[in-house]
């Protein structure tokens, strides 16, 4: 499968999360502890915002392993952002090519996914035909993840993100049942418009891939006053990760099964995720 992180908060250099933690995303590309595969070397990507609301995010993706990309290291060392998504890929059968690397981008939106649509090669035609014809030309790759993104856009991601992703999941499960595919959907997803970030953890079988969110910064400062890296972060700072980046006790909370979360200014949200037929 894959590993990903979503960051929102005080502007930081990308390297602070991609390279510096003990279990950084780059470390996870070689030594994932909770993933289906230990090594995630089938491409990578990072999408980041400059802080100007509504702007199209920058995107850098590569087909090689993340741990061996000198340009990614240079970008991470020199780029600051208040909101970014990063992803390392382990292919579930589609080609290793740049257009199949996450994040996927449409206008000011980004999307990353860990998981799969089971027997996607059988379900693909029906799912792609459900994509809005105006969105179809923007699909450049061949992955189930990109089809899921464009289905969510079709069902209203830009206006009602949670409902749109529930409708996407409902369609995948409906098509899967029609083809006799058991438990067709496995997903953890993060998507953002550059202002708010939504995450989803769901699987048809009820045993979803791992996903965690960071404890509130104020609570972490109280627990670990000696941690200098916590002092400059705002109370709004949050992280969503496929697996924890470190071992500080109390720093990471599991996202519940079949749920969604919203990172936003003010109070964040956590709710029940329920697929719905479109």
Provide the number of structural domains. Answer: 1
Beta-strand segment tally = 13
Main sheet: strands, sense, barrel: 7 strands, antiparallel
What's the CATH superfamily, by name? Aminohydrolase, N-terminal nucleophile (Ntn) domain
* CATH overall fold name: Glutamine Phosphoribosylpyrophosphate, subunit 1, domain 1
CATH top level label: Alpha Beta
- Average pLDDT for all residues: 92
Uncertain residue segments: none
Global Rg: 18 Å
Helix content: 10-25%
General shape: globular
Second rung of CATH, namely the architecture: 4-Layer Sandwich
The portion of residues forming beta strands comes to 25-35%
Question: How widely separated are the two ends?
Answer: 27 Å
Order of helices and strands: EHHEEHEEEHHHEEEHEEEE
Our count of helices gives: 7
Strand order across the biggest sheet? Answer: 3-2-4-1-10-9-11
Structural class: alpha+beta
What does this structure look like?
- It is an enzyme of class 2 (transferase).
- Keywords: Glutamine amidotransferase, Glycosyltransferase, Transferase.
- The chain is α+β, with helices and mostly antiparallel strands and 278 residues long.
- The chain has one domain (2-272): Aminohydrolase, N-terminal nucleophile (Ntn) domain (Glutamine Phosphoribosylpyrophosphate, subunit 1, domain 1, 4-Layer Sandwich).
- Helix content is 24%, strand content 28%.
- The chain has 7 helices and 13 strands.
- A 7-stranded antiparallel beta sheet has the order 3-2-4-1-10-9-11. Strands 5-6-7-8-12-13 form a 6-stranded antiparallel beta sheet.
- The longest helix has 18 residues, at 161-178.
- The radius of gyration is 18 Å and the shape is globular.
- The protein starts with a strand and ends in a 6-residue tail after the last strand.
- The model has no long low-confidence stretch (mean pLDDT 92).
């Amino acid at each position: 499968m894959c590993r990903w992180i979503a960051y929102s908060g005080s502007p930081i250099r990308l390297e602070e999360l991609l390279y510096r933690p003990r279990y950084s995303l780059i470390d996870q590309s070689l030594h994932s502890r909770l993933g289906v595969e230990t090594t995630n070397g089938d491409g990578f990507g990072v999408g980041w915002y400059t802080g100007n609301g509504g702007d199209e995010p920058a995107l850098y993706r590569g087909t090689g392993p993340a741990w061996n990309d000198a340009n990614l290291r240079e970008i991470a060392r020199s780029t600051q952002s208040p909101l970014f998504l990063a992803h390392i890929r382990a292919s579930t059968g589609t080609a290793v090519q740049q257009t199949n690397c996450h994040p996927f981008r449409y206008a000011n939106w980004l999307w990353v996914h860990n998981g799969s649509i089971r027997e996607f090669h059988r379900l693909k035609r029906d799912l792609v035909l459900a994509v809005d014809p105006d969105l179809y030309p923007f699909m450049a790759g061949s992955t189930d993840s990109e089809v899921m993104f464009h289905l969510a856009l079709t069902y209203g991601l830009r206006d009602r993100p949670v409902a749109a992703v529930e409708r996407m999941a409902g369609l995948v499960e409906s098509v899967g049942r029609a083809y006799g595919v058991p438990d067709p959907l496995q997903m953890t997803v993060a998507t953002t418009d550059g202002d708010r970030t939504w995450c989803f953890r769901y699987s048809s079988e009820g045993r979803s891939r791992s996903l965690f969110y960071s404890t509130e910064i104020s609570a972490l400062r109280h627990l670990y006053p000696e941690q200098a890296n916590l002092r400059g972060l705002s109370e709004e700072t949050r992280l969503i990760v496929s697996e924890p980046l470190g071992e500080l006790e109390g720093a990471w909370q599991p996202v519940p099964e079949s749920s969604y979360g919203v990172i936003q200014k003010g109070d964040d949200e956590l709710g029940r995720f329920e697929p719905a037929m479109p």
